[in-house]
Amino acid sequence: MSAAPYEESHLYRLRHTAAHLMAQAVTELYPGAKLTLGPPIENGFYYDIEFPEAIKEADLAGIENRMRELAKLDMPLVRREATDRDDARRIIREECSLGQGEEVISYKLELLDAVPEGQTISFYEQRATDKQGKERLFIDLCRGPHVESTKEVRHFKLMSIAGAYWRGDVRNKMLTRIYGTAFETKDDLQGYLTFLEEAAKRDHRKLGRELGLFMFSPVVGQGLPLWLPKGTVLRETMNQFLRDEQVKRGYQGVVTPNIASIKLYEKSGHILTFREKLFPFMEDPEGETFILKPMNCPFHIEIYRSAMRSYRDLPIRYAEFGTVYRYEQSGELAGMLRVRGFTQDDAHLFVRPDQLLDEFVGVVDLMMQVLKRLGLNDYRARVGTRDPENAKYIGHDDNWRLSEEAIIEACRRVGLDYVVSPGDAAFYGPKLDLIIKDALGRDWQMGTVQVDYNLPERFELEYTGDDSKPHRPIMIHRAPFGSLERMIGLLTEQYAGAFPFWLAPVQVAVLPIADRHVAYARQVAERLQGYPVLGLAPEGEQVAADPGAWTGPNLRVSVDESRETLGKKIRENTKQKVPYLLICGDRDCEAGTVGVRARGEEADLGSMTLAGFLERIQPEL
């Protein structure tokens, strides 16, 4: 038996009641505060309030204490229904305002006006008399549902405050939104708070700054990341890994522009189906209209169309790390996980009908290999199919049926568990999404692959078959990473910044203890980086490079030549989450060794030769 929807659960009602309890506490502590809306949300609740004066995070403790006091009064949640709109206005004016005047209930009157005609108008009342004989009363316009009594709201915490425009409209007044959470048990609440603490430690925005991976600048613009040197190394390492895999599988690289004529996207249909995500159009003096590239597929189609194709040429696989631009509302932006400019590891395959299934299986296999290499082994598949009731989808029913059947059969062939999700298809074809569960148990939709009969139709793509007649190819769209930005943001949180050895921007840091050890430390670094160095000579001895000598494994190595103490060098490089620290002192210079410390190890690994060190890390290489 499947679980009941969250909106029907006791936890949902509990959190809804917690929102009312918080609102009552606010009205008691801040006379004149104007209440608006206070719904339950996925992990808690919030209430948007216009305060008579600004409040701070530090004020939440006082509100929380008042909530606990009110909860103990065991106030029943009583539903009241207005007989008509006039009766509802009377209740709001005479009872909800608690004698503070009409101004404090102005938002409630506006909400009442928005209730559709014929819909029942209900209120919830919580009332009790405290030990001092004072009546404690709160009435709110609300559809419900709620728990029976405030005493059930025991395990809760107010989390934060934020700004929120009334009804989400920037033209309206900015309100104060108070977020809170509530659970049915103390253990559940503590587990959630522990989860948040761990999530804060792993926040990719915080780690991105600390580790020198990426940044955002308000001068550049919201949602437009800037890659710093270490982040660029990480990005290029992932790119090269996927390029190598693609070359093995017969992909050809292409490069396309960042802008295009609007005609291209009119022909593809994106102007009609994707318009809200497009940046404003650009007009040139000659009357041509251009747009920032929102996706790469029409470009790849034009490359396919540039020459006559035979059935012997197919499959053709074009791959590009193409940067695209999509307008996201500022409130939707979330570090690297939701940006306005991002790079897709995009590819488009043009295949014959008899090749479709094998090629799709190959793409799914590639995506699974990519996730395995990245250490993302907990994932599931979601097959997005068409909702026949939705008019956004284009193309013939038979093509949709064939595409959906091919995706499901491919999942079966590779042994991939999947669920079917009607309505989640792209407008031109069904798709397979891989949903990753991260180290904190959160789900992320990452890699995707789609079957497309429709764009080849719209662009009139052809190839000459073995019967010498023209035939229509089928397209497969795929992106194993999804986007580099989102994948790197996810990986940063997955590993808390301690990337696997092969991905780490700096794999080895060499730490000379004093200035007299710097020359030796540089030789160690050069040997690991792959430069020709004959040997590791004692300090001051000149040794000529031998081009024929073993040149090392091309590691990414830094030398910390700062004049800090060794202890501080170790602490700073440990904060940078470098996998290995190699320490060089007098004895090492004399013996040709290094002291080795591994990330995560409580004690150092002792002194060893470079050959011994490389033998130790061989599995990671």
Overview in brief:
With 621 residues, the chain is α+β, with helices and mostly antiparallel strands. Helices cover 33% and strands 24% of the residues.
In the CATH hierarchy, the architecture of the largest domain is 2-Layer Sandwich
Gyration radius, in Å:
31 Å
Q: Structural class of the helices, strands and pairings?
A: alpha+beta
Q: Please give the count of helices.
A: 18
- State the CATH class of the largest domain: Alpha Beta
CATH topology of the largest domain: BirA Bifunctional Protein, domain 2
* Low-confidence parts: 532-550
Helical residues, percent: 25-40%
Mind describing the biggest β-sheet?
A: 8 strands, mixed
Please list the strands of the largest sheet in the order they lie side by side.
11-15-16-23-20-19-17-18
Strand content: 15-25%
Write down the overall geometry: globular
